[in-house]
Specification:
By secondary structure, the protein is of the alpha+beta class. The protein has one domain (3-23, 40-305): HIT family, subunit A. It is built from six helices and 13 strands. The protein has a ten-stranded antiparallel β-sheet, with helices on both faces. Helix 1 packs across helix 4 (226-247). The protein is globular, with a radius of gyration of 19 Å.
Length: 309
Amino acid sequence: MPEYRYDEILDRRVIVAAERSARPHTTTTNPDARSGPEQCPFCSGHEDRTPPETYRTGEGAAEEPGWRVRVVPNLYPMVGAPEDGDATGSHEVVILSPNHDRSFGQLDLDQAVEVFTVLRDRARFHLEAGRAYAAVFLNDGRGAGASIEHPHAQIVAPDSPAVAINAMVERFSTDLIAREMTDARRNGLVVVDGPAIAWCPPGSWSPYSMRVAHRSTRAGFDGATDAEVRVVAEALHAALGRLHATLGDVPHNVIVHSAPPKVHAREMHWHVEVVARTGVVAGFELGSGIYANSVAPEQAAILLRDSIQ
């Protein structure tokens, strides 16, 4: 039977209605159009098709092949220089690898750790430069908002505070992530176990959503140690592998929720959210602010956990 749940971390009310997964579908969507490496500005050998790079790992000179991870300014930024408008800040693209078809979950584990380390380092760079916040996210697939199919992440560092993040910090009168991790273990919601774990939140607003976090508390992603980055990257990599094994090449978002500067441990717990885009936010959600999830998190956790033996 449908039941209300509440995601305290996102301050979001949810209806879990598993029966809706059986409803008929007569609409269709076209699959992502594949443009191929020949037209891709992010592939190795096409360095002249992007703005000059700001960072790279690997061999080779700037603007030349040989890189493993490459960071460039976004050609169509959400925030920019003061002369371009009042939404100021920095917006970068982090190209995960030279491989046109390998998403984060399909990278080798060491590659995935390197990508996650670069994301932390670039977030730290922008915060140390005085930006108010650094939003780190990855959109995989057109259904998740990606306009270029070559796997890449983005860092948007605005000069104005992020209202939603500040509101999240205010809800952390106790460590909500640590509490949810404990509840997830008690209720069979853990998908990947280890020093960092991945679990399905009990108030998941979207089918097969997961959260990933380190057991220790730290407020900001930019302050994470190399060891913490590694184990979270490993858990995220494993979680995305299970998502792919369960649903195939489903569009998805990876979002790093991190505290703004001057927020300390016990006031926030940085974590990663994985959202599988199996459907769309439709009229009920937009009109009511309540989200309907057709796959119970308990069932999603079982399917994800058992997808790779």
